[in-house]
Design goal:
Layout (H helix, E strand, L loop, with lengths): L10 E2 L5 E2 L2 H7 L7 E6 L5 E6 L12 H15 L9 H9 L1
Antiparallel strand pairs: 1-2, 3-4
Length: 98
């Protein structure tokens, strides 16, 4: 195991509370009240914990899988030079109408 990876144990307390060691909380950015970890149980029985950042509900659309896929597609088009520029809005509208 790499020396920069954490290995240890989590302790369950009453009511199912889990105590994370300070070092791990700091690395996960979980020192802030309300910080969240996504937990997912894999097919092989391993639980994955992923740090999550809360976002305002009105911005959730931007982080949907579909929208992020479209963002990646747009980034690829820009990187490949598949873009057009226009002097003004009228030129853009003319191009769209064609």
């Amino acid at each position: 195991m790499s020396s920069n990876r954490y290995h240890g144990f989590l302790s369950f307390q009453s009511r199912g509370l889990v105590s994370f060691p300070r070092e791990l909380r700091e690395r996960l950015g979980a020192e802030t009240p309300g910080a969240q970890l996504e937990i997912e149980e894999r097919e092989d029985g391993v639980f994955e914990l992923k740090p999550m950042i809360a976002i305002p509900a009105e911005q959730a659309w931007f982080w949907s899988r579909r929208w992020q896929s479209m963002e990646q597609e747009a980034d690829a088009d820009i990187a490949a030079g598949r873009t057009d520029t226009f002097e003004d809005v009228e030129d853009l509208i003319t191009d769209l109408d064609q």
